[in-house]
Please model this.
Amino acid sequence: MNKKRFYKNVKRNQQWTQPEEGREIDFADKYVSGEGIYSDKFDYMRPKVKKKRKRKADFRKYAKRLGIACLCFLIISAGYTVMDVYMQRHAMPSDYSDNDNESGGVINEVALSLKSQYVQSVSLDGSVMLDSVIEELSQNGCNSVTFDIKRSEGSVGYKSALSTVDTYGATAFPATDLKGSVERLKAQDILAVGRIYCYLDNLVPQKDSSAAVLDRNGIPYTDSKGNTFLNPNSETAYRYIKDIISECAEMGITVFVLDGVDLPGELSDLYNDGFDYLSKRLYADLGTDIKLLEAQNVSLSNYTQVNEEEDEETDSLADEISQKLSSEQEADKVYFITTQTDKSAVKEKLEESGIKSYILAD
Model:
């Protein structure tokens, strides 16, 4: 029988054997049983992978490594603690002139917007006079009230328990219930602000020369107006100022206006006076839960505001405010404005001029 051979493309892909029957062989046919159930009949021949058991030796190795890591951490922590204690005990005293105090507390860093009115210290009696003050503040739209805790002549404006205040006999016309008054003002959303004359003092230098600025003859220095001054370089004078502020802070006062912080021109270069030096030292000792402001004293003319000349008067007031005050006010400054003009009119012109922090006084 001769075999058929295909050499030409014409006959390519044509069947020459038996016709195909059934279906194509699938790769998984070897797993199919006669009943159509898939199984792997060779599974028993496959190698079984056994789970590796942890040995005691491995556990001890890991435990040893963990112990070494914990010991190293404890040694480093103890070293840092000892170093920190040593540095604190052997640190040099703070240089207040270079201390920027930028990492202070919240109150210290807040830029206040004081719309304040000045009242006499005796008005903070916790009763009748205080009620009158609160009513007046509400009518004038003020958010704070300012009073003297230490006046320019040296007297103290509240009942103090300090031995130095008692020794100097400095208390005069005091606020009879400062703590109670502060709490009542706070309940009315009114901030109590204490003003303290720092170095200008006509009382203490006469009784304690160790705290005074002295002249060449060793007696308290007096300026052309007869004023005497506390010595900014005296620890006695500094502790006196600090103790007064600290005592008032315990009674609830958180904002203090420092006035009289500069000595006369001929003395200023000889002492560490000025607001910056004093405030940084007070912050360092008392903490930054208080706010210290420097008073910028401004005197405005008396505008009577006669009806027929009202527009002219208010325009003159606005011009004077723009000349003497600046809307670009530093965060640690406050204007202490003395004027006989109606407070509501002055307040309106101040706000129109963009002045954010001020105290109005007669």
